[in-house]
Amino acid sequence: MAMTLISPAFAEGERLPDKHTRLGENLMPPLKWAGAPAGTRSFVLIVEDPDAPSGTFRHCGAFNIAASWEGLPESADTAPGGAPRFSRNDFGNGRYDGPQPPQGHGVHHYHFRLAALDVPSLAIPDVAGIEPMWNEARKHCLAEASLTGTYEVA
Questions:
Q1: Domains and CATH numbers, the chain
Q2: Is residue 45 within 8 Å of 62, Cβ to Cβ?
Q3: Burial call 118-147: b when 16+ CB within 10 Å, e when fewer
Q4: Quick check: pTM over 0.90?
Q5: How distant is the alpha carbon of residue 9 from its chain centre?
Q6: Calpha distance 100→59 (Å, rounded)
Q7: Which of 12, 15, 25, 36 is deepest in the core (most CB within 10 A)?
Q8: Backbone angles phi and psi of 81, in degrees to 5
Q9: How far is Cα 66 from Cα 47, in angstroms, rounded to an integer?
Q10: Count of CA atoms in the C-beta half-sphere (13 A) of 110
C-alpha cells in the first residue's frame, strides 16, 4: 500500500478553508497519513506554493515528527509539548503560515508533502529554512505522499 496523506479540512484539489489562511485564523490544517513503509523512523512535512509571483514560496516545514504519529492536529505548530520542530518559512517564521496570495493573481496550489525517513531525526537548525531541511530529508526518504489544496483572493 502506498503512503497516503489526507486532511479532514479539505479534499485533494479543493479550496483551503479561510481559517487555514493568513487572511483568516492562520491555523495549520489537521493532517492524517497511513501506509508508511517498514523502517520509517520519522516524518517531515513541507507546504509550498509554486504559483507565487517570485517562484516557489514555502509556508511550512516541520521535521522530527515521531514515526509513531499518524497525523498532525489542527494548529500542530502551536501545540504545547511533543510538537515537531519547525524550520523558518519564507515569511521568516518558525511555524505554519497559510496562504496569502496576491489579490487577483489567480488560483494558487498549496502542496502539502510528507516524507517518511529512515532516520529518527534531522540535525538541522530551525533557522536553516525549509529548503535546506527538505534537501537533507530527501537523502533519507523512504516514501512520499502529497495533498494539494487551492486558494485564491479575487
A1: 4-72+82-151 (3.90.280.10)
A2: yes
A3: eeeebebeeeebbeebbebbeeeeebebeb
A4: yes
A5: 14
A6: 10
A7: 36
A8: 60, 130
A9: 18
A10: 28
pLDDT at 84: 87
The burial of 76, by beta-carbon neighbours within 10 Å (0-12 exposed, 13-18 middle, 19 or more buried), is given as buried
Q: Which of 99, 84, 102 is nearest to 42 (CA)?
A: 84
Give pLDDT, residue 125: 83
101/52 Cα distance (integer angstroms): 7
Query: Alpha-carbon distance 133 to 137, whole Å?
Result: 6
Quick check: 8 and 30 in contact, CB under 8 A? yes
pLDDT score of 78: 67
* Cα separation, 141 vs 154, whole angstroms: 38
Using alpha carbons only, what angle is made at residue 17 by residues 81 and 151, rounded to the nearest 5 degrees? 115
